[in-house]
Design brief:
It is a single chain. By secondary structure, the protein is α+β, with helices and mostly antiparallel strands. The protein has two domains: about 1-45, no CATH class; about 55-130, Cation efflux protein, cytoplasmic domain (Alpha-Beta Plaits), CATH 3.30.70. It is about 55% helix and about 25% strand. The protein has four helices and three strands. The chain has a three-stranded mixed sheet with strand order 1-2-3, covered by helices on one side. Helix 1 runs antiparallel to helix 2. The longest helix has 30 residues, at about 15-45.
């Protein structure tokens, strides 16, 4: 950009001196625009921006696919670098034993991690499910 401004200023002689300044200003604006495009995604990760709904809905659907899971209460996904960390609350039958609940939690966690290789870890909470 500044090359074009310099060329016009040199070829045009008198009266074209400001073209170089305007070309440099335009190039500076382009650099700022590019920098914002690069910084924006990084700031989103630093500020723990909410992820796109598509991934969130997929994770909810995968967790709800297990027959023991009655309902997905809450689901949060955090992205750190290239990996995702899932925090999910699932509701299971209230009459289950702690051991049965523990097995369901591990099955749900393993299923989520197996489903998407970018999910590094999943923290699965269980809640009692009551009809009504």
């Amino acid at each position: 950009m500044t090359f074009i401004g310099n060329s016009i200023a040199l070829i045009g002689n008198k009266g074209y001196e400001q073209v170089d300044n305007w070309a440099a200003l335009f190039a500076a604006g382009f650099i700022v625009y590019s920098a914002i495009g690069i910084i924006r995604p990084a700031l989103g990760e630093i500020m723990d921006k909410a992820l796109e709904n598509k991934l969130l809905e997929e994770v909810r659907k995968i967790a709800a696919a297990k027959k023991e899971v009655k309902r997905v209460e809450k689901c949060f996904i955090c992205k750190m670098r290239f990996d995702y960390f899932v925090d999910i609350h699932i509701e299971v039958d209230a009459d289950l034993t702690v051991a049965d609940g523990h097995l369901i939690v591990h099955a749900a966690k393993d299923h989520l991690i197996k489903y998407n290789k970018k999910i590094r870890d999943a923290l699965v909470h269980i809640e009692p499910y009551f009809l009504g």
